[in-house]
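User: Hey, quick favor. My workstation is busy. Could you predict this chain's structure for me?
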Amino acid sequence: MKIFLTISLIFLITFSTKAQDIIVKNLDKEITTNFQNSKSETFQIQNYSNLDKSIKIKTKINNLQGGATLQICYGENCQESTSFLIVNVPANSISNEISIVLNGGLSNYKETAYFEFIDMEVDQGIKKEIMLNVSNERTQELFFSKNDVQVKSFFPNPTVKSAIMEYSINSGENDAKITLQNVLGSIVSTYELSPEENKLTISTEDLNPGVYFYTLTIDDEGLATRKLIVKK
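Assistant: No problem, here it is.
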């Protein structure tokens, strides 16, 4: 009887230890974005064991509201939150970056998503909770940043009458501008970003409702593009 109990205890300890062979690194507890914007959170899985691991990532979440969507991406493989993703992590190594992408809809939304990282060898793993937050607060996400140039996204977005972009250009040597285009690629307007200013306000009242794209160009090089939605 003692021998049986000893063997069982050894088995349970070994099983529990195997479940602790992986850790999830650099995963924040909250992902926040604004209406019609996307926010990506990246993290890695580290395998401390001497065996290759297949890790199944599963999510449990109530119905996303207001058109918001959630994806898990690894390389070019992206899965909706209703499915699962398998990541292979070699022995004694760390995975490439895995992304959780929250796409904001058209209404406020706040919900907790539950993630499981399951070691498929032992069918056990790690559980994480992440708060998903979609807000219409008049805050600006960073659009572009490099050296002495920092530009934030237009807000509000969607917009009705006007949109505001805050920026900082510390050098007068940079020729910076914003080009606004419609979905057909035709230029609607071009706006200079003066180093002596820190805010650009554009009027959208005369624009037809729909989707537009704005591009930051510095010294004739297009550096970043984002979407601006105009509503009436």
